[in-house]
């Protein structure tokens, strides 16, 4: 589904608001985490820092993707958002590596942690990170935004983990829980990195969009009047919102004079049923004899 101009402006505003809120909270949380000695808070602040970068990347890609097609980029610049998602995945990988390195170091060299300070700061983090994540739920079908959304969601989870960690440390003075929660967050990050990477690779390899059933598309085109068969059907994504299709349709030779009307019916079907607005359709006919049938190009 393509974004309307209103949606584009709304998304721009949400991205800018997310950048501002995240930047402010990251600065505050990092200093509190540093002075309190909490790895959970430092990890969370580091993740927040990557989120700021992630949102800037998403915002920039969103702007660039709106450029009109030209002689060098005839399909337009929509795929920039997919490359932005890939870049955000790299950032998530670096963040995950950092978390596990810190866990390893803290395991052998434990540090004292202020449980009360961690609890208060992480509670604010849950509100801020959760609120920012809610800003982007409306646009989660866009992989560019989804990659940033995952960052936001895991910041909220990391803050929740730090909150639990702070309470337990305050009550028991046991800082080992900080490492356990950080490990859990790191493992969840790894799972979602692979999930997001799979979606990005699928688009870059011109895979069929997940929400489209190729067999169903072929079946419905062939059910149209005067269309005998569909061949060489290809469906792929330019970006998360823009889907393209190309195919050959076979019609009777004596119906070639109606080919323009037939193609228009196919395009109307694709737009109304599958939201495919960019379709290239070639019309063919067949000549059959005792040796079989062969295609004749119009």
TrEMBL record:
The protein, known as: Co/Zn/Cd efflux system component
Localisation per UniProt entry: Membrane
Highest taxon listed in the record's lineage: Bacteria
Spans through the membrane: 21-42, 78-101, 113-137, 149-169, 175-194
Keywords (A to Z) from UniProt: Ion transport, Membrane, Transmembrane, Transmembrane helix, Transport
InterPro entries per record: Cation_efflux, Cation_efflux_CTD, Cation_efflux_CTD_sf, Cation_efflux_TM, Cation_efflux_TMD_sf, CDF/SLC30A
Family assignment from sequence similarity: Belongs to the cation diffusion facilitator (CDF) transporter (TC 2.A.4) family. SLC30A subfamily.
A GO CC annotation given for this chain: plasma membrane
Residues covered by the Cation efflux protein transmembrane domain: 16-205
Occurrences of domain Cation efflux protein cytoplasmic (ranges): 209-284
Single GO molecular function: zinc ion transmembrane transporter activity
Annotated membrane topology: Multi-pass membrane protein
Presence of keyword Glycoprotein: no
């Amino acid at each position: 589904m393509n974004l309307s101009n209103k949606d584009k402006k709304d998304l721009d505003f949400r991205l800018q608001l997310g950048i501002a809120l995240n930047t402010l909270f990251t600065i505050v949380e990092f200093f509190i985490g540093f002075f309190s000695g909490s790895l959970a808070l430092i990890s969370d602040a580091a993740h927040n820092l990557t989120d700021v970068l992630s949102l800037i990347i998403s915002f920039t890609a969103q702007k660039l993707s709106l450029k009109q097609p030209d002689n060098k980029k005839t399909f337009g610049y929509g795929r920039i958002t997919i490359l932005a998602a890939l870049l955000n995945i790299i950032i998530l990988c670096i963040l995950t590596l950092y978390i596990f390195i810190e866990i390893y170091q803290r395991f052998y060299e434990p540090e004292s942690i202020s449980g009360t300070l961690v609890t208060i700061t992480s509670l604010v983090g849950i509100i801020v990170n959760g609120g920012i994540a809610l800003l982007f739920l409306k646009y989660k079908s866009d992989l560019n935004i989804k990659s940033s959304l995952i960052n936001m969601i895991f910041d909220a989870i990391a803050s929740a983990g730090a909150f639990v960690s702070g309470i337990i440390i305050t009550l028991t003075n046991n800082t080992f829980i900080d490492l356990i929660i950080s490990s859990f967050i790191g493992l969840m990050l790894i799972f979602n990195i692979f999930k997001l990477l799979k979606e990005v690779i699928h688009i870059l390899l011109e895979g069929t969009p997940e929400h489209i059933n190729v067999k169903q598309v072929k079946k419905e085109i062939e059910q149209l009047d005067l269309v005998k068969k569909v061949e060489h059907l290809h469906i792929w994504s330019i970006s998360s919102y823009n889907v393209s299709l190309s195919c050959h349709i076979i019609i009777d030779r004596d119906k070639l004079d109606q080919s323009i009307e037939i193609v228009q019916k196919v395009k109307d079907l694709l737009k109304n049923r599958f939201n495919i607005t960019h379709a290239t359709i070639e019309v063919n006919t067949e000549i059959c004899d005792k040796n079989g049938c062969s295609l004749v190009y119009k």
